[in-house]
Amino acid sequence: xxxxxxxxxxxxxxxxxxxxxxGPKRPPAVTGPPPPPPEDTSSGAGSLNPANPVDWGPxxxxxxxxGDLSSTYLGDEYGxxxxxxxxxxxxxxxxxxxxxxxxxEHHAQWLLRYSSAKVIIEGHCDERGTVEYNLALGDQxxxxxxxxxxxxxxxxxxxxxxxxxxxxxxxxxxxxxxxSKNRRAHFQVSR
Amino acid sequence: MSPLRKLASFSTVLLxxxxxAAPGRAQEPIRQIIIGGTQQRLAVPxxxxxxxxxxxxxxxxxxxxxLRDDLAFQALFKFVDEGLYSxxxxxEPDAPDFEDWQSIxxxxxxxxxxxxxxxxxxxxxxxxxxxxxxxxxxQRHTGQVEDVxxxxxxxxxxxxxxxxxxxxxxxxxxxxxxxxxxxxDGSTKELYxxxxxxxxxxRVTVNRSLNILPSWKPNGDGLAYVSYRSGAPDVxxxxxxxxxxxxxxxxxxxxxxPAWSPDGSQVAFGSTRSGNMEIxxxxxxxxxxxxxxxxxxxxxxxxxxxxxxxxxxTSDRGGTxxxxxxxxxxxxxxxxxxxxxxxxxxxxSPSRQHSEIAYTSRLEGGTFxxxxxxxxxxxxxxxxxxxxxxxxxxxxxxxxxxxFSCNRLRRWQLAMCDxxxxxxRTIDVGAGQNVYPDWSR
Lengths: 191, 441
Prior knowledge:
Strand content of chain A: 5-15%
Largest sheet of chain B: 6 strands, mixed
Number of helices of chain B: 3
CATH topology of the largest domain in chain B: Neuraminidase
Strand content of chain B: 35-45%
Structural class of chain A: alpha+beta
Shape of chain B: globular
CATH superfamily of the largest domain in chain B: TolB, C-terminal domain
Strand order of the largest sheet of chain A: 1-4-2-3
Oligomer: heterodimer
CATH architecture of the domain at 78-173 in chain A: 2-Layer Sandwich
Helix content of chain B: under 10%
Shape of chain A: elongated
Structural class of chain B: mainly beta
Largest sheet of chain A: 4 strands, mixed
Number of strands of chain B: 32
Number of domains of chain B: 2
CATH class of the domain at 78-173 in chain A: Alpha Beta
């Protein structure tokens, strides 16, 4: 899986990038000790009652090889260390603040300089609100970010928007401070 | 630690309907128990083991508990006090003494005998009308000894099939959980399924990505769900028997919130494949991709009406996200909800008795609760209330209950209540954040 990551000056943080999604620097989720499993959690595989033959074992579609989906992502430490810092949004909004625009102008300069780099723009939300709505809101944040980078001259084909909704908070807390960190666009660079 | 507690009986009732198929004929045996009228009483005495071996006795103990829980769950019946059974003479399941059962005011007797050995388990079910002293149902269910809960569930559903309500004891719930997230930071979620009572939890997906918003195929042999396994969110269709998933949306835009049509032929979902988030539908093999909404607003989270002719969905075209409805062809769009400023995640009841849509609604305090819109009266009733939020309702197969996820105790856990909001309880399906449940049909 140690495939060549190319040139481009990306190399510095590419080494980190192999770990990709959910790097080691994120704080652990705060959950209590897990409760005991339900009793009768019987039989992983093997035959069950023929009148109820649906025992699908564990796998629907195991990922091939080493199963490391994230090896296609080259740079990602959730905003830490990479050149493309996260930008942040107001609650329930996808408009770009002056500060976010300024950050994106820096990102555009960097991306225009390293012109074979592609960027995945992840739109994230805080935990408040329904899953479907937040997935749509994350998409709007990602698209607003992409439109601004587009206006700064970055080609459309180098950008992909992925909405994460409220599924991957960078801070698992339930405070205003945690929420404001989680309402963000995050950038993953690949080539 | 049964996740289902015994339930208080509810305000519905049981009538015996003597079905006379044609005028002039002699009275026919009881074929159906129509519920409505004065509540009547079931006797569910302890299962009788055929032998004295431990295996049969253990199986019987489980069968008795599961059968009683399954029937009590429906909140349609009164039950004979369990203490009375020991006062009666020993039950002979094939030839009960009706005087005994009449003396404790039972209207129906559900007698079960079980025979277990290492080769398998046989459950003999007899249902008697005590009032008319006749046998109305006689069945044998067989399987492996470890399937004892399933056999008891089948017996419960066989009894429910005598009523106008479908049983749900063999239904299952699929949900998303981060319990196997390797980093422990919640960045991956896999799909799991359990029996409706929280037992028999099994993992479904193993791709170490985000797998969310599962939807049961109506015949129960498949799922549709959202997975980020290729980086961006696509809708996948899984065949559970073949153990394979088909990428329905193939990376065209981002796709979310799939919902099966009631005949299992189509999947509707929200997608950005045309730029903006719109409702699309496709055949289950990915062919026949159709755009159903064209609007500058966000349209997502579709749910089909039970007859497949309409689709309700979330749209913020009116300024805030609310539930709207349209024909399955995308025409005739109308707004349904106007209570509150944030409604999402609609689920159309499969009930034959009630025309209702459950959804998630934000209250003034900022928390989210489960609400039900009665499509006939246009009244909304709020089912849940309290600290924290509840989200993502899904109906039981007969539309009498809902499952959803609540974070009342700082952890998202599955919860259930009946369609009026009574009998709220947590369903223990194991560790982690357990979200986005979908109840099989």
